[in-house]
Amino acid sequence: MNRLMVGAAAAVTILLSSGVTEAGLGGVGYNSVPTEACSACDFSQAKVGCGVNYRTVREVVWEPQTVKSTRVVYDHCTETVPVQCVRNVYQTCYRNECYTVCKPVYKTCYRDVTTRVCRPVTETCYRTVQCNVRKPVYKTCYRDVCYTVCKPVYKTCYRTCCYNVCKPVYKTCYRDVCYTSYKTETQTCYKECCYTTFKSVTEKKTVDVCSGRWETYTKCVPGPMVQKCVPDPCDPCCPKVICCPGPPQKICCKRWVPCMIKKEICCTRMVPQICKKQVPYTVCRQVPVNCTKRVPYTTCTYVQQTCTKKVPYTTCTMTKQTCSRRVPYTSCTWVNECICKRVPYTKTRMVSHCVTRRVPYTTCTMTKQTCTRRVPYTTCKQVCETKLVTKTKCIPRCVPVCTVKCVPRVVCRRVPVCDPCTTCDPCGDGCNSGGCTTMKPDCKAPGNQD
């Protein structure tokens, strides 16, 4: 497309730069005709050189043109292809391995440590504070209230009722009963018991104490960052500032050098001691004894008897009565009162005293021990298998494409040109076309004809 536009522009330039060929007879234009031939304006005189002249003008016209071409289009296709591959199969196996470990054996010992501790002692004090309070003063007053009540009037009456009762007659009898009782007999015996007591034994022993000392040494450290101007490789006229480390410095440092020292300490340990003693104990036993006792028992017989009784019953009648009562009510007034109260506050002071305690410490000795463990290891075996792999491929094909382009075309047309003469037709086309430069007095300008 760009090449076509460049070619069209070159063709237009060549056509416009070339001279316009003038139409004439025998290769001579109308401008070469003498002015005496313009005295008459008929066709025969126009051939000699009088009247309207024409010249050929070339113009470039852009015309749309449909161009057919082809374009390559790629189609994506997929296909499944079997591929032989090798897969690793891993299997975990175990083997026995002997290793030696150092087993710690711990032993707990004790030592006496005296420390000074501060114990807080709290003391409660009081201070007197005066404050104004508003104290409510309650006063109980009474007012008379009248109310009506219905007062019940009860009257007790009696009626006679007969009823039968069974009266029990009790008689006490006796019978002999044999029973076994137990008598407790007590006997004191002795047995020998063993008990353990602890006896304190003090002994001296030498232990390793971790100690050390401070040691001064000198070391070099990088110096502080300083700014330095260096020429810029891109612009030698403009130097740039960079930061670089300064000269190293030597400083003095302290380090702790540990060392082990021997120290003799006193240890107190409790030694168990077995003692024996006679302990009395009491043995109780039950001895059966046969006894006889008289047990009373009661017999009951019922005898019917008719009785009469007066049964009371109550009748109630309601009587209205107007009563008056005094109803209390409470009135409250506030009175300002200044009171003094004791406010407690706490003071704490620290009291130091010495405390001795037994501090346990543990000693450790390492004992070698052989153990067996199962160590896993992995074996690899290759297995051949077939996999289906999907592959994508591009298939080219040509597609027709229609493109509309603008193509330049040169068109030739004739333009009338009027010669500069005084005998030109005032009403002809030569004056209206703009070719005349001299007109008669009665010839009007083009476009002003009424």
List keywords for this structure.
mainly beta, two-stranded antiparallel ribbon, 3 helices, extended, about 450 residues
**Mean pLDDT reading:** 78
Strand content bin: over 45%
Structural class: mainly beta
Order of helices and strands: HEEHEEEEH
Q: Could you give the distance between the termini?
A: 53 Å
The largest β sheet comes out as: 2 strands, antiparallel
Radius of gyration: 72 Å
Per the principal axes of the C-alpha atoms, what is the gross shape?
extended
Helix percent reads under 10%
Kindly report the spatial arrangement of strands forming the biggest sheet: 1-2
Can you offer a commentary on this structure?
There is one protein chain. This protein is mostly beta strands and 450 residues long. Among the domains are: 35-57 and 413-440, no CATH class; 97-353, no CATH class. It is 6% helix and 79% strand. The chain is built from three helices and six strands, in the order H-E-E-H-E-E-E-E-H. The chain has helices at residues 2-17, 43-48, 429-432, and strands spanning 24-25, 28-29, 52-221, 225-230, 240-245, 249-418. The strands form three sheets. The protein has a two-stranded antiparallel sheet with strand order 1-2. A two-stranded antiparallel ribbon has the order 3-6. A hairpin with a 2-residue loop joins strand 1 and strand 2 (28-29). The longest helix has 16 residues, at 2-17. It is extended and about 180 Å long.
